Amino acid sequence: MDLAAYRRSLSAAEPPVGLSLALAALWWDAKGDWDRAHRTAMEDKTQDGAAVHAYLHRKEGDLSNARYWYTRAGKTPAQGTLEAEWDALAQTLL
After folding, report:
1. What letter would DSSP give residue 15?
2. Given this model, what pLDDT does residue 57 score?
3. Mean pLDDT by 10-residue block, N- to C-terminus, for the chain (94 residues)?
4. What Cα–Cα distance (Å) separates residue 76 from each residue in 6, 67, 68, 73?
5. Cα gap 43→58, rounded to integer Å
6. What is the DSSP letter of 20?
7. Which of 7, 26, 69, 78 is in Cβ range 3.0-4.6 Å of 54 for a Cys bridge?
8. Cβ(56)–Cβ(86) under 8 Å?
9. CA angle, 60 as apex, 71 and 94 as ends, to 5°?
10. What is the DSSP annotation of 45-86?
């Protein structure tokens, strides 16, 4: 699946079958369901899950918690827009 197909899948009621937890969390976020996105990201114990978790807390405005998760992901905290971070995460995870 490429980024364009992933974006098209947002018109569905549920994420596509076979997505990683990190991609499913981003999918729920794009659908406007931050709580479900956060719950899904918490299930993912990988660095990818931690990166999405960091993004979600940054979006929430909880920057200290976001910094913790960026560290867990082995990443420098994002500085650009939330939209750019979402795109970069989705592209990397796809």
Report:
1. P
2. 98
3. 96 96 98 98 98 98 97 96 97 96
4. 25, 8, 10, 9
5. 18
6. -
7. 69
8. no
9. 60
10. -SHHHHHHHHHHHHHHT-HHHHHHHHHHHT-PPP-S-HHHHH
Q: What DSSP element (H or E) covers 14? A: none
Tokens for 5?
A: 């197909």
Q: Under a CB-based contact definition with an 8 Å cutoff, are residues 76 and 85 in contact?
A: no
What's the one-letter identity of residue 36? R
Length of the chain: 94
Task: Report residue 32 as tokens.
Answer: 């406007």
Can you tell me the distance from the alpha carbon of 43 to that of 62, in angstroms, rounded to the nearest whole number?
19
Dig out the tokens for 41 from the structure: 């990201």
